[in-house]
Structure formats: C-alpha cells, structure tokens
Amino acid sequence: MLNVPQDAEKEEEDHALESLDLLDDDALTATAVLDLDGEKDAGLAEPALTSEGGNGDALPAPAAPRLPSPAGSRDSLYLYLREVSRFPMLKPDEEHELALRVRDHNDPDAAFRLVSSHLRLVVRIAMDFQRRWMQNVLDLVQEGNVGLMRAVNKFDPDKGIKFSYYASFWIKAYILKFIMDNWRMVKIGTTQVQRKLFYNLNRERQKLIAQGYDPDAAMLSERLGVTEEQINEMDQRLASTDLSLNMQVGEDPGGASRMDFLPALGPGIEDTLATDEIATLLRSRLKSIMPKLNEKEIYILQNRLLTDEPVTLREIGERYNVTRERVRQLEARLLEKIRQHLSLDIKDFSDAWIQS
Description:
Blueprint: H1 6-21, H2 36-39, H3 71-84, H4 92-105, H5 108-117, H6 119-133, H7 137-154, H8 163-182, H9 192-210, H10 217-224, H11 228-239, H12 269-286, H13 295-305, H14 313-320, H15 324-345
C-alpha cells in the first residue's frame, strides 16, 4: 500500500481548493444528483462534445482544436453510468447516520455507502466541465471521485449542510485542478495569479464585450486585480500552442531545429576561456608568495584553497591542535596576504578573483 506523506497530501488539498477560490461566485453552477433514468433522454448518457453555451465559459477556450473523444470512451462512459445507477440513493436520515459513523468511528462501510450513492453527482459535474475539456470525460470523473472521497473524510454532519452540496465543491476543485494541470503539455498555471487568470481571463473579456466594451489590458487588469504585464503574459500563454523543440526550421531537408537556436545553459566560450586564463595566471603568481608563508598557511593554501576537495576547518584544527575559529582566522589572514601580493604583481587584479 502506498502511503502519501501528510504534507504532500495537504499541499494537494490546498492547491485543489485554491482552484475554486480563484473562480468567480457566479461561475460555480448549482449541481443536483443525476438520475440516470430521468436524464438519459437529455443526452447525458453520452458526453456533449461542443464547447458552446452553458457556464463552461469559466474556462479558457483551447488554443488549438483537440481530438474528439473516440467511440470507445463513450461506450465506457455508458457502461460506467449503468454501473453507478445500481447504487441506491440515500434518505436524509441515512445520510446523516452514515456521516456520523465516518466522522466518529472512521467506518469504511459507511464511507463506501456515502461515496457510492453520490457517484452520479460526480458524473453530472464532470459533464458540465466536459463542454470545455472535450476529451475523455472519464478522466474528469476519476478526479471528481477523488474529490468525493476527500469530501467524505472532511464532512461534518452537525453543520446542517447537505452532503451533496458540500461534496460538490470538493469535486469541482479536483476537476478544475486536473484540467489546469493537463490543459497543455507545458503547464501554464504555475503561480496563484496565473491560475486566477487561467479560469477568469477569457470569461471576464467576454462579459465586457457583451456589455458593449472593447476590453484592453488596462481594463482587464483593473477588473481582475492584477497588473497589465500579467494580463499580456497570460494572453500569450493561452493563445500559443506547444511546439516541439525538434521541429525543423525551414523547408530544407536536414536543416536546423528549434533546439539549435536555444542559448546554452552554461557559461559562454568567452567566459570559459577568461576563467581558465585567470586561474592559470593566479596559480603562477602564487608560487612567488610561498616563501613568505609559514607552515600552517602553506597547508591551508594547498589543501583548502587550491584543491577541488578541500579539507574542513575541524580537520586542520585537529592537525595543529587549534580551534576551528583559529583556523578560520588564519585563513582570513592568508587571503588578505594573497590579495595584497597579487594586487602588486598583477596590473588589472580584481578582488572578485579571490573568493572569501
């Protein structure tokens, strides 16, 4: 059994709930329990693949058309709906009793009955968001089920709130987090401001257009409480598509790829050559200072300052039977001697060459 660390689990919870906090209140539609037999004629047995209409405008439109869901996924969804419809609905007193058993005794059987009786609620909410996701709705159902199980563990029946209403917020939070994390191959919502704009930028723009305005970055930043730079940056992120770095540039066969135009992560060739020249110059000039140093300073220079694997202050102190603080003072005094010697010997000497 895989045990998730509590701190990682708490961080995932906070991230999921933050997805709901970043949405406007009117973007969260009221949800009801899905009755499969009553809703089958309305087309809920198969997900709608259109992105038009409804309150789905709370999410940004995809930058590029997505692949339609294959017929196999719709068949799997229909089979899943048939299975979850077999679990009976709970009466209010039964729901309250089961919730008490979960809270007070951590009863797994009571938790299972609460979860299984609300699986249709997860499907209903997932179908609302599927108008924008336009991929396999079972992915949203799966994440919504995780939120439902989290709601069972967090629910307090003495608050006087109906469990389906409480659970719907957890279900939406996990579904929204999944959509944002999987919207692109490269994640576009990495900060709180970016997550807020991911959910609300296009929706606020459409609202202003409907009111007769021509919204610009200044107006949107004022309405959403962010800077114009953040508005422009998120606009570019939502409008662009993922591009492969291995994609060829130009039409010539065997031409350069986008990867060839990326700057190197390490220092440039000029910096590398300059560093090597400075290191060689310093080592040659340090030979002339050796006769002016005592035994301890020579040992510190050779075994701590000029080596790739320097010894510690403790090891030097044990060698000469002195404290670490005394070794540190000897090292500081040695560095000052080296600075003074090199400044006289090298015309363009810089203190930056000697790292304290």
